[in-house]
Amino acid sequence: MTRPHRALTGLVAAIVFAAAGCSVGPNYVRPSVIVPPDYKERAEGAEWKTAQPSDGTTRGPWWETFGDPLLNTLESQVNISNQNVLVAEAQFRQARALVLAARSQFFPTVTVGAGYTRSQQSQNLVGSAFAQQQLGTRNDFVLPLDVSWEVDVWGRIRRNVEANRASAQASAGDLETSRLLFQSEVAQDYFQLRTLDAQRQLLDAAIAAFQTSLKLTQSRYGGGVASAADVAQAETQLKTTQAQATDLGVQRAQLEHAIAVLIGQPPAMLTIPFSPLSATPPPIPVGLPSELLERRPDVAAAERRVATANAQIGVAVAAYYPTVTLSASAGFESGSIAKWLVWPSRFFSVGPAVTETVFDGGLRGAQTAEARAAYDASVASYRQTVLGAFQDVEDNMAALRILETEAREQADAVRAAERSLSLTTNQYRAGIVSYLNVVVAQTAALTSEQTGAGIAGRRLAASVLLVKALGGGWSADRLPTADEVTRK
Prior knowledge:
Elements: H1 3-19, H2 40-44, H3 46-51, H4 69-76, H5 78-81, H6 83-103, E1 109-112, E2 115-120, H7 129-133, E3 137-151, H8 156-222, H9 228-262, H10 289-295, H11 297-318, E4 323-334, E5 346-355, H12 363-429, H13 435-469
Antiparallel strand pairs: 1-3, 2-3, 3-4, 4-5
Helix pairs in contact: 6-8, 8-9, 8-11, 8-13, 9-13, 11-12, 12-13
């Protein structure tokens, strides 16, 4: 081996060795967040500790805890047919493809081709007699093989791969967040629809009772005991309640249509049979606030975006350093096709190149400042996501605790209203009070029953939202690793 060749080999070896252990830019450290030792609502509500044990987490399909077979069937279709979930899944696959694209820069670029050129020089460009003798038409057959490789001396490629891997992991978190969002929307709409069914059942029972009252009033009017005003009031009460029952059909139809779209079906293809609300809020294990950071896919996605922004700083800083490129070219070239692919027609060239930007008008400085600002923004966004997660849990724990008390109080109110209605109706039959008193008592009883049904629906909705706030049984160990997002 000649001295120039030995020097070139030594230079290449030194460059490759340096590339193995140098990456500019900051190494990633997960940002700190403020985590309370326990949830405020659990500390304040003694009943919450008994009703909602904290010694476990929701496992498997969380909606099965409500014990509704039809809800289970609807939820199972969200992953398969919800178009927004499919969008998120495609975006995750796109993010994984970008990892492979970034990783491809670790390897040389090899191109091969074949070309043929037939040319003739201009006589006006020829100055010497020898050159004039070379005039005429020429053939040029070429078969080149070109190799180019950027040596990752400063870690620009590694940082770019790191950024894309973290971005793909964030996209996986977004996919899980999307799944959880639409699963919870199906459950909320379903329980709201069942609440309407319960209210419709109450209205149907009230209509039957009001029809009986109307017949009673008409009979008393025929006997000269009641006035025509009593009959009008009874008829008004009946017709108003019938109108309320009919009006519920609008909301129910819209909820049914919304559920159909959430499970990826045209509204015309889904019919949910009438069934009054019967489920009760199940016990939901809450765990500790520190565990919430590992149970929320949106928190995991936000943290991965911080890692992406951190790696992008390294990419920006690497632009300050020289770019080292190894290139080689070899092949066959001849003026005659008969001698094109013979050994004497071979050619080659090989050698490294180092380029450094000496002036860019402040471009690299601006790009680095932009990357650092983007990192700061991602840190703030991550911390805000964590705060929002804590708020979601506290909000729905408070809602469940307060609504449980309200449900007991409302049940007492319903019983009192029913007693009042019974007493007032007996007084009317005895001629002690006017029919207006009966109407007032009937309205109060119906309103109390409807309020009770509404509270039951709100408690189930709060349970769904609490499960969603806790991550729906998801955990950070389900996030794909850096190697998993790199595989084809």
